[in-house]
Amino acid sequence: MEFPFDLNALLPERISVLDHNLTAGRKSLGRPDPQRQISTVIDELGKASAKAQQLAAPITSAPKLQSNRHHLYLLKEGESNGGRGVAVGFLKVGYKKLFLLDQQGAHVEIEPLCVLDFFVTENLQRHGYGLELFSYMLQHKRVEPVRMAYDRPSPKFLSFLEKHYGLKDSVPQVNNFVVFDGFFRDRSAVQHRKPVPRKVEGEIKPYSLTERDVVREEQKALPWPFARPARPPLSPPLSLPSQYSRSLSVDSSPSRGPPRPCPGPGAYRSQTPHSQYLENVTCRAKRTSSLNRSQISFN
Ligand SMILES: CC(=O)SCCNC(=O)CCNC(=O)[C@H](O)C(C)(C)COP(=O)(O)OP(=O)(O)OC[C@H]1O[C@@H](n2cnc3c(N)ncnc32)[C@H](O)[C@@H]1OP(=O)(O)O
């Protein structure tokens, strides 16, 4: 993805690690408003990622990064675009407090590092850039892929995880997060286990939403005539097991979350744990396995 400014001057490293400060390590060297340009890069990549995944709206943007304790790894290719560089893709991770089911079906409250968004521009996919980003993140976070949770991974990402890390067998969940065999190994000492609550009759409401669901809630919150009709709930892809439904995430823990400016209705997950499952709730956005787009250029 090309930009009308010098990416190499903006992002000196091949992979930049960005957080809520939107800085790429080095201070501005007299460049005009580097933060605004970094925001543009993040916003455009976020939009392209959402489009590639057929999400209703981006789950990655500069304002979202500024209001969360996430890390965004941004990969550039410095030689291209007449030496000004192109943005190749990004990987966004963050800690999320989740309620997961372990191998025995017991409810476990846990706060793993999660992959939240991952994108390589269409024309550069299957060239090893995704692996470069992912392995950089693993080293930076000192984590193994099997110890991470994955927020509604796309078919391409599932294939990526199996190919590069041998992650294949997942532990069934009742939410959108996917964890693989080995995730719960040696965790019992630090986990706060909870008994699985009995299902209560009546209306079943989620007590928390994934970022992907938040995007949908934000859209629903718009007044008529601005609100766009929500997509009908879709069944999980045939190749995937039934665990790919809604999440029981309760967001980042208070200790990790930065101060947030007064969220709007539905903007963030409820913090109140609910004792009900979401077994029947499969309201989810459809992902696509591929989009044949030519090289994206932003001018
Ligand atoms: C939690 C989440 O973020 S889910 C969202 C994940 N993102 C997306 O689905 C957006 C579209 N896809 C992409 O951006 C990329 O394909 C990524 C980020 C998933 C992987 O990045 P890449 O640079 O393509 O990965 P890399 O080249 O290192 O590895 C290639 C492997 O990834 C998987 N993969 C990549 N593209 C495809 C594809 N079009 N179809 C199937 N598998 C694919 C395959 O396992 C592939 O190995 P193969 O070519 O031998 O079959």
From TrEMBL:
This is Alpha-tubulin N-acetyltransferase 1. GO terms for molecular function: tubulin N-acetyltransferase activity. Residues 233-275 are annotated as: Disordered. Belongs to the acetyltransferase ATAT1 family. Specifically acetylates 'Lys-40' in alpha-tubulin on the lumenal side of microtubules. Promotes microtubule destabilization and accelerates microtubule dynamics; this activity may be independent of acetylation activity. Acetylates alpha-tubulin with a slow enzymatic rate, due to a catalytic site that is not optimized for acetyl transfer. Enters the microtubule through each end and diffuses quickly throughout the lumen of microtubules. InterPro entries: Atat, GNAT_ATAT. PANTHER family: ALPHA-TUBULIN N-ACETYLTRANSFERASE 1. It is found in: Cytoplasm; Membrane, Clathrin-coated pit; Cell junction, Focal adhesion; Cell projection, Axon. The record marks Q53 as: Crucial for catalytic activity.
